[in-house]
Design a protein that fits this description.
two-stranded antiparallel ribbon, 5-stranded mixed β-sheet, 5 helices, single chain, 18% strand
Length: 195
């Protein structure tokens, strides 16, 4: 009887080991993929620098906006565009939003546009935040599953990518952008005009 129990135990143990060995690589792959797609620590400790390589063509960005319309980054060719990846639940995103909206207003006549990727957020919460800061829901694409954020290489929120008038990445930053950062990187790309 003891021999039979030990044999069953070894078979069960062997099955468990095979199942674990089969599941473990899949779990690791999912964890790595999730880390690439899921927002990080909301800007705290996130690496500085551009999520998309500077000088490269900006990734495609097209989808439904928070106001129910449609936005395509390709339609903004000829404008300098600040693409900001954000969410209403992200405290650092809330912190930087007024500076982004103010920059859009200040340099709109010179060709600056602000486009948002609202990542893994509720539409109602996102629209409420935009209403608080005077943002435009027609300029933010809803990204409920985080796939657009992943395509833009975003490791955490917030993240901002500056796209020049030719559709190339001019600068980027992971974490909170300030008015000074926007002025230093975006203003030189804009045509001369009233400051």
């Amino acid at each position: 009887m003891g021999t039979l129990r030990r044999a069953r135990s070894r078979r069960t143990s062997g099955r468990r080991r095979r199942v674990l060995l089969g599941v473990l690589p899949a779990a690791v792959l999912l964890a790595v993929a999730g880390a690439a797609v899921l927002p990080g620590r909301s800007g705290e400790g996130a690496p500085a620098g551009s999520p998309v390589p500077v000088g490269s063509a900006a990734p495609a960005l097209r989808g439904p906006t928070l106001d129910g319309g449609e936005l395509d980054l390709a339609d903004l060719r000829g404008h300098v565009v600040l693409v900001n990846v954000w969410a209403a639940w992200c405290a650092p995103c809330r912190e930087e939003m007024p500076a982004l909206v103010a920059a859009q207003r200040r340099w709109h006549d010179r060709g600056l546009r602000l486009v948002g990727i609202n990542s893994r957020d509720g539409v109602r919460q996102a629209r409420e935040l935009l209403a608080e800061v005077g943002g435009d829901p027609a300029s933010s694409v809803a990204d409920p599953d985080g796939l657009l954020s992943a395509a833009w290489g975003v490791p955490g929120l917030p993240a901002t990518v500056l796209v020049d008038a030719d559709g190339r990445v001019a600068a980027g930053h992971v974490g909170v952008v300030t008015e000074e950062w926007i002025r230093a990187h975006a203003e030189p790309l804009l045509p001369a005009g009233a400051r």
